Amino acid sequence: VQLVESGGGSAQPGGSLRLSCTSSAEALDSNCISWFRQAPGKEREGIAGIYTDDGHTYYADSVKGRFTISLDNAKNLVYLQMNSLKPDDAGVHYCGVGPRNRVSCGKYTANFWGQGTQVTVS
User: Fold this and answer.
1) Which of 20, 28, 34, 46 has its CA 20 to 30 A from that of 63?
2) Closest residue by Cα to residue 104 from 36, 37, 6
3) In whole angstroms, what is the distance from residue 57 CA to residue 6 CA?
4) Quick one: CA torsion of 56, 38, 65, 54, rounded to 10 degrees?
């Protein structure tokens, strides 16, 4: 499974960025697509997930109300819209696929990862 992220970069506190993740239609079908981030010296943490069967979403408390994960089936794209960015949001952001578990989607881990995209907030 190949995942390709894009959209990282720099933003000021309070600013916005939109990350994109693309993969094959087969990988996105009836699966969990998630975003994790890893700050320097910290563990990778799940921040958002979407279960493509029913659109069920998960957000970590730290991003709830500021970030939105969405799916564009026609383009095989998953977006993470990040608004009201804070310095703590900085780090390498990874798109993940799997496991096919609606309850844990976006919380703990993924079966496959993209290469990551850097987000800087300062």
Assistant:
1) 28
2) 36
3) 21
4) -10
Of 77, 80, 99, 95, which is closest to residue 30 (Cα–Cα)?
99
Closest CA to 112 of 98, 100, 102, 93: 98
> How big is the chain by its Cα radius of gyration, in Å?
13
Which tens digits make up the pLDDT trace of 27-69?
888 899 999 999 999 999 999 999 999 999 999 999 999 999 9
**Residue bearing tokens 């029913």:** 54
- Rounded distance, CA 64 to CA 43, Å? 20
Could you write out the three-class secondary structure of 51-104?
ECCCCEEEECCCCCCCEEEEEEHHHCEEEEEECCCCHHHCEEEEEEECCCCCCC
Name the residue with tokens 């990862």.
113
User: Which phi and psi angles does 14 have, rounded to 5°?
Assistant: 90, -10
Cβ proximity of 68 and 45 under 8 Å: no
User: How many helices, marked H, and strands, marked E, lie in the chain?
Assistant: 1, 11
- For 104, phi then psi, to 5°, come to -95, 0
